[in-house]
């Protein structure tokens, strides 16, 4: 289950976020940077307003990597009563020393270390800090962006890299969050990675992160993320996996009604990948072209927003996830994996997958397959089975 974290600026917005359905209410001042801190008395008042109806978190500010400074700010924020204290961990020679300085606080308070995709693209340093956070007793780790003008999270790291971050955190028994100027189209792409929460500010304010919460924008984000059952007492259970489907009137069977289908396609998508049965093909990358056509169930009403569409990003992200895992000997195997991945989405009824090698002959060679979704297939699926393979017994 992936939760929705909403960043708010004080008691009034905290109440609105609870009313509109946020799972976690995060206290921060967006006008003061990526992790702009609010005054402790404002945070304390917001915690009193929330009154335990939702978990509350608060940030300590964009602080220098000085262990004493970091530890003091985190301790002060913990005294406000928030359940989670988020600490910015910028790339620095003393970062792991700062993490260690929070070990005593982490025994009494849930501490979350925040790293930044736009400042630190190197996976090895992130993993070292994740291990240090585990050793210090942190509750979680988060990946955000520091410079909001430098693009979204997905502009700085691709889906396989983000999947690696989520898996590394879960392997070290840390909660994991993803944020960074996220927009509604990012949500279907990130949900299959099974992060514990996704964090939002600008998307809840109609794009202006320094502006007030916009109820319509907030509801759009909320409806793209599955609600947490424990916080929706009395809500009817559903067999639909809302990580993959925000149900808004989809009732027709596309196998019986041709007009009930739309076709989504990806054409001439070329990646250098590791593929081939010959020994010499294991030593180099080859250009492979992908053409995918997918029949999807259309809504019973005019398409209005991201709640009504199957994003082509899910196809391209899925291909990248598959080819990043290992060398694949046969194009047929690759095509079958792509088809199975796409057909796992409950809106999809059929897929045509064409995969072509471009470096073997002057033209191209390849394979094309068509696969249909079995009518008896269950509605609940992971879109990226390989991303979910490393989950533990708790579902993380």
Describe the structure.
The protein is of the alpha/beta class. The protein folds into 2 domains: 3-231, Aldolase class I (TIM Barrel); 258-388, 2-Layer Sandwich (GTP Cyclohydrolase I, domain 2). 31% of the residues lie in helices and 21% in strands. The protein contains 13 helices and 12 strands. The strands form 2 sheets. The protein has an 8-stranded parallel beta barrel with strand order 1-2-3-4-5-6-7-8, surrounded by 5 helices. The chain has a 4-stranded antiparallel beta sheet with strand order 9-10-11-12, with helices on one face. Strand 3 (56-59), helix 3 (67-78) and strand 4 (84-88) form a beta-alpha-beta unit. Helix 3 (67-78) packs across helix 4 (95-101). The longest helix has 14 residues, at 123-136. The radius of gyration is 22 Å and the shape is globular. The N and C termini lie close together (8 Å). Mean pLDDT is 86; it is low at 230-254 and 376-396.
């Amino acid at each position: 289950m992936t939760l929705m974290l909403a960043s708010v600026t004080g008691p009034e917005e905290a109440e609105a976020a609870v009313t509109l359905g946020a799972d976690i209410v995060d206290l921060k001042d967006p006008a003061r940077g990526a992790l702009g801190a609010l005054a402790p008395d404002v945070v304390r008042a917001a915690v009193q307003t929330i009154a335990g109806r939702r978990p509350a978190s608060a940030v300590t500010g964009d602080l220098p990597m000085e262990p004493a400074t970091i530890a003091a700010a985190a301790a002060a924020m913990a005294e406000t009563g928030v359940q989670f204290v988020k600490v910015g961990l910028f790339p620095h020679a003393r970062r792991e020393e700062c993490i260690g300085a929070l070990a005593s606080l982490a025994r009494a308070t849930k501490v979350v270390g925040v790293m930044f995709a736009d400042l630190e693209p190197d996976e090895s340093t992130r993993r070292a800090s994740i291990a240090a956070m585990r050793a210090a007793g942190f509750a979680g780790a988060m990946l955000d962006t520091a410079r909001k003008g430098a693009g979204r999270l997905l502009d700085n790291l691709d889906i396989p890299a983000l999947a690696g971050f989520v898996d590394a955190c879960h392997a070290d028994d840390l909660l994991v969050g993803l944020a960074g100027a996220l927009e509604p189209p990012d949500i279907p792409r990130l949900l299959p990675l099974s992060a514990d929460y996704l964090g939002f500010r600008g998307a809840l304010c109609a794009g202006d992160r320094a502006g007030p919460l916009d109820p319509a924008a907030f509801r759009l984000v909320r409806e793209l993320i599955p609600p947490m059952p424990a916080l929706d007492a009395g809500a009817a259970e559903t067999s639909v996996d809302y990580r993959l489907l925000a149900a808004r009137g989809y009732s027709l069977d596309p196998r019986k009604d041709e007009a009930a289908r739309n076709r989504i396609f990806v054409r001439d998508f070329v990646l250098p990948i590791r593929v081939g049965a010959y020994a010499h093909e294991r030593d180099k990358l080859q250009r492979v072209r992908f053409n995918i056509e997918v029949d999807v169930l259309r809504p019973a009403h005019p398409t209005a927003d991201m709640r009504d569409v199957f994003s082509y990003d899910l196809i391209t992200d899925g291909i990248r996830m598959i080819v990043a895992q290992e060398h694949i000997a046969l194009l047929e195997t690759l095509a079958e994996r792509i088809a199975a991945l796409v057909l796992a989405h409950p809106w999809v009824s059929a897929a045509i997958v064409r995969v072509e090698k471009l470096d073997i002959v002057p033209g191209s060679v390849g394979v094309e397959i068509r696969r249909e979704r079995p009518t008896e297939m269950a509605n609940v699926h992971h879109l990226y089975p390989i991303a979910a393979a490393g989950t533990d017994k708790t579902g993380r």
